[in-house]
Amino acid sequence: MSPRTAHGVVFTFSYETWDDAVYRGMMRPPDRLAAALIADPGVCDVIIANPYRWLPTVLARRALGTGAAFPALAGRRLLQPWRLRDRRDPLDPDALEARYRAYGRALGRAARGAGMERPLLLTTHPLVAGFADTSWAARVVYFGRDDWTSYPGRSEFWPAYRDAYRRIAASGMPVAAVSAQIVERIAPTGPGVVVPNGVEVSEWSGPQPAAPAWFDAIRTPRLVYVGTIDERLDAEGVAALARARPDVTVVLLGHVAAPDHLSPVAGLSNVVAHPAVGRAELVAVLRNAEAALVAHRLTPLTEAMSPLKAYEYLAGGAPVLSVDLPPMRGIDDRVLLAPRVADFAGSVDRLLALGRADEQRRARFVTENSWESRHRMVFELLYATANVSG
User: 82 - beta bridge partners?
Assistant: First the structure.
């Protein structure tokens, strides 16, 4: 994957931890990057750093022995920085900057303790990239999986994220992000690379698995939406689709963040909500679905997303109908775009006429959009010999 390097690598998650990554099946871009670094024989030492956690919680988990296993490999370490005074980041700008400068120093101490000399830092946290003391690192690269300046759940930190983006840009730090929109919003003065989401080849290879019994029992044709049922889903648009096309069944597959999100589709017999499933079952669903949907609202957040679900839909062989988001354009000619989810009904016949991809085409898409190829782009930025000293 990487050129062999004498530099170790420190990797940081944003707000989630190694445990979170393992429990969700190592499915998101930061999870995949961490796993790739751990497995890469070309990197001598790797530290995977969790975000700050409250010390009493850290000690309680340690005493109970809870938590996901971390690979017991030479030169691979998991770091859990802790804080004692509070559970959450402060809102005061000066205090927040001080908090992340201290986090950066904790990373540096861990790197020195591991015998790393001038390691490289790959962070997925905008505040680490913008505020942390990284004087110990030979090179810092920021990887953006979302546009944090439009992330609804952390709106109180939007000013801090905008400040961090300005500092990232001014520093000349290399930036990799899942969409051109994120790169444009940061406007880096250093290198900027778009690295869309991808798929794991081994998950999507081999003979077609049987459909899960619950999915097999649903009336066809089935239009599947995969993902957390939250404010991103245009549930009103889905309801309009279901009413206009009673001949199809819309399957909403994922964790429901709040019951209210499903209110618009309540009582519609051709909308089926099913809880989130494991990775193998998800693959089996998508490799048997007639079609799939990216049924998002148009917001600054969704306009900057690279929908992982779209790549997995296509890896499963299903044609895709999506709202017209910039990152969805040009992925594949089996992706149909509509202005709004409420307009989907007019494209359903054309979507179903595309049919499932033949095996040769499906396998080619998987190979061309592998996580390995995506990681290569990030690691080329990280391991670039220019501007790396030490």
Answer: 53
User: CATH 3.40.50.2000 region(s) of the chain?
Assistant: 9-198+370-382, 201-368
Averaged pLDDT score across all residues of the chain? 94
**Cα distance between residue 61 and residue 65, in whole Å:** 6
Amino acid symbol at 113: G
| Cα angle value 85/76/8 (rounded, 5°) | 90
pTM of the entire structure?
0.86
Given a cut of 80, whether residue 196 has pLDDT beyond it is yes
Q: Average pLDDT for residues 353-364, to the nearest whole number? A: 97
Of 49, 57, 62, 46, give the one whose Cα is nearest residue 17: 49
How would you write 72-97 as a 3-class SS string?
Answer: CCCCEEEECCEECCCCCCCCCHHHHH
Question: 9-198+370-382 domain in CATH 1.20.1560.10?
Answer: no
Contacts of 88 (CB under 8 A, 6+ apart): none
pLDDT of residue 5: 56
For residue 153, the model assigns a pLDDT of 85
pLDDT single digits (tens) 102-132: 999 999 999 999 999 999 999 999 999 999 9
- The CA angle 230-236-242, to the nearest 5 degrees, is 115
Tokens of 381: 């930025």
Q: Among 67, 79, 8, which Cα is nearest to 37's?
A: 8
Four-way CATH pick for 201-368: 1.10.1200.10, 3.40.50.2000, 3.30.70.100, 3.30.590.20: 3.40.50.2000
Alpha-carbon span 10 to 248, nearest angstrom: 48
Beta strand pairing call for 53-54 and 9-12: unpaired
Q: How far is CA 338 from CA 232, 326, 370, in A?
A: 16, 12, 27
pLDDT tier for residue 363 given thresholds of 50, 70 and 90: very high
